[in-house]
Amino acid sequence: MADFANGWLYEAGIGESRALLIENDEPAQIRIERSDGRARAGAVVDAKFTRQWVAGRSGIVTLPDGQEALLQPLPKGLAEGSMVRVVIVRAAMTERGGQAKRAKAQPADADSGLCEGPDLLAEIHASGLPVKQVHAHEADYFGQHGWHEAVEQAESGRIDFEGGSLLVSLTPAMALFDVDGPLASFELAKRAAKEVALALVRFDISGNIGVDFPTLQAKAERAAVTAIFDDHMTANCERTAINGFGFMQIVGRKVRPSVPEILQANRSVNAALKLLRQAERDRGTGAMRLEVHPAVANKLQPSMLEELARRTGRPVSVEPRGDIPIDGGLIG
């Protein structure tokens, strides 16, 4: 795709949609949207007020799909059991280990109509950049432009760069970046500042973020490092200065889970969706058998297998095997 060095690639996969932003023929951002039925940010729905959370300030509402959301602020006079029109301002999330975090909602404007909120394809179209949709029968353009390497970084939380590395740790409170490497502190911090900025954009990381740089005693050095971060940070956010212990905090508006939060939430789900992508691209004929770890087999929903059969024109079966690692599914 030499003629597509800048813009979005989009792939409507089975169970998830994927997007890859290419800038100057290099991967600049990846996005993943799972087909989990959760309300998207920007959706306007009629919800049932279930109970108060903080008296007079916030409450829990039940969305049409049965999921709960935190409503704040709480409209005056809203009685439990009544209906209220809300807008989803942050989608629900699943933290590492399976802990669910409710969506956040606000009262919708009086004239707001019901809507589902923009999906991934609509969001990347709204960027104004070119969008090219790719398909399984074509070459793996995602793979050719660094998709698999970026996904591995997001799953592992480790980002290597020349002279050092970043370790991204997800906590309920914030995403933490730890900077490590053999270089002198100032040189390592300068290189890391650029890589942190690029990583925040590449993996759609927002909300509360902390960066633990090497300790820099000189104020001028700390200022130089933050200037490098600012030069490469293209997302809308605010940051503090780097303090004397090397810590900088960044805050950006969070409307959905980041790519690392999606990919670190459930390893079996990741393996199932990866295998479905590989199976859809398989050029074999006749019946298809997916040999997988039992935990992965449990994530291969019947609707996914039916869609795989429809797309490939091949009957599909699943064989759970305890001797196969989670990430080692086979296509036969």
From TrEMBL:
<keyword id="KW-0378">Hydrolase</keyword>
<feature type="region of interest" description="Disordered">
    <location>
        <begin position="311"/>
        <end position="332"/>
    </location>
</feature>
<keyword id="KW-0694">RNA-binding</keyword>
<dbReference type="InterPro" id="IPR019307">
    <property type="entry name" value="RNA-bd_AU-1/RNase_E/G"/>
</dbReference>
<protein>
    <submittedName>
        <fullName>Ribonuclease E/G</fullName>
    </submittedName>
</protein>
<dbReference type="Pfam" id="PF10150">
    <property type="entry name" value="RNase_E_G"/>
</dbReference>
<feature type="domain" description="RNA-binding protein AU-1/Ribonuclease E/G">
    <location>
        <begin position="133"/>
        <end position="250"/>
    </location>
</feature>
